[in-house]
Write a structure and sequence with these properties.
about 160 residues; 7 helices; about 55% helix; 2 domains; about 5% strand; 2 strands; binds glutathione; two-stranded antiparallel sheet; mainly alpha; single chain
Length: about 160
């Protein structure tokens, strides 16, 4: 949603129970140009392509795909950061490298920036003391984007409430 709002792309939101399309194991799902996609990184890549928020260069595109998949692993690992703080340290060091090398760019966010932003949305407040340097600069820029502000305004949760 943030990426589409940032791109000025119109979209509709539906609840998972309304879904009657091709096989997809679990929400979130997105219908992009007539094709239904599940799995967050795949959704981000497909929506990024549709909204022209994908690097044109093949090598940069491959790296961007890596970052979207990194973001999914980071979020999954974050569930265990209380028991494994060294994993948090390793992930934040990795993101600092991505920001320092310009791979994550808050000035011109692409689908992989939005993928990583979902992680920071989820854990950024709780782990604010670990967000420093170039990562902090990137995160602050992302929070100032049209896409982030529009998503905040909509008040739609990033994940459905647990039952
Ligand atoms: N790897 C999937 C995870 C999907 C997932 O865990 N979805 C949750 C909601 S956030 C769900 O509703 N799961 C229901 C289920 O697994 O049956 C993704 O990245 O989208």
């Amino acid at each position: 949603m943030m990426m589409m709002d940032d791109a000025g792309q119109e979209y509709e939101c539906h609840t998972p129970d309304e879904y009657k399309g091709s096989p997809a194991f679990a929400p979130p799902m997105a219908e992009v140009d007539g094709v239904t996609i599940a799995q967050t990184p795949a959704i981000m890549m497909a929506v990024g392509e549709f909204c022209k928020k994908t690097p044109e260069d093949a090598k940069k595109k491959a790296k961007a795909c890596q970052v979207a998949l990194d973001a999914a692993d980071f979020l999954s690992d974050a569930l265990n950061f209380a028991e494994k703080p060294e994993r948090a340290e390793k992930w934040f060091a990795h993101v600092e490298g991505l920001c320092s090398s310009g791979c994550l760019d808050g000035d011109k966010p692409l689908f992989h920036d939005w993928s990583m932003m979902m992680v920071f949305n989820a854990i950024g407040d709780a782990m604010a003391d670990q967000i420093k340097g170039k990562t902090k600069e990137w995160y602050e820029k992302m929070k100032e984007t049209k896409g982030f502000k529009a998503w905040k305004e909509r008040g739609v949760p990033q994940v459905p409430p647990s039952e």
